[in-house]
Design goal:
single chain; about 180 residues; alpha/beta; Secreted effector protein pipB2 fold; seven-stranded mixed β-sheet; 2 helices; globular
Length: about 180
């Protein structure tokens, strides 16, 4: 059983968001419970995967437990609090549902490397972990907002699939024989 450096149970808010310009954004997960504010850094792909997993879990819960009231997100998305001081970079995320309390939990474990630069197994007891426990509505708001944030990135080249920068894009598939794509 893991011990948590922070156990935000329950959260007042939870948000997955980004700050900075597209192409140079820092993605994060942040939650508050009372006086505890915890911010964690993630990769863009991890935020997208987390959002998809949360939204799929919510759909599965509504199918599995037909007596559960379907949650619709509130119109108000929480805002991240500043200053942003990340506790750690996330190495592993786990989500689950507590049927008794009708709450969803999210456990984030740190990405830790030893002196040789090898990544340490996140399941070890000495790897820092944070638990966020939230309502289904809070998680739906977080998941849908995270999908929007991930979608606001740089446009992708239809030929090579690489991001198009603000100052243009040289597509390798054209072998340099076409004009650069600029958005």
């Amino acid at each position: 059983m893991s011990t948590f450096a922070y156990d935000l149970n329950p959260v007042q808010f939870i948000i997955a968001d980004a700050m900075g310009e597209p192409g140079k954004r820092t993605f994060f997960l942040q939650g508050r419970s009372g006086s505890q504010l915890v911010s964690l850094v993630l990769e863009k792909q991890e935020v997208g995967n987390l959002a998809i997993s949360i939204l799929q879990l919510l759909e599965e819960l509504e199918t599995t437990y037909p007596n559960l009231k379907r949650v619709t997100p509130s119109k108000r998305t929480p805002r991240a609090e500043h200053p942003m001081e990340p506790y750690f970079r996330v190495g592993q995320l786990s989500i689950g549902y507590n049927e008794e309390d009708d709450m969803i939990w999210l456990i984030a474990k740190a990405l830790v490397a030893n002196e040789e630069g090898e990544v340490i197994d996140p399941n070890r007891d000495d790897v820092p972990a944070v638990r966020f426990v939230a309502t289904r509505e809070q998680m739906r708001v977080m998941g849908e907002h995270a999908m929007e944030v991930v979608g606001k990135g740089r446009p992708v080249c239809p030929l090579c699939g690489r991001p198009i920068e603000r100052d243009g894009h040289f597509c390798e598939r054209t072998d340099g024989h076409a004009m650069p794509v600029i958005f």
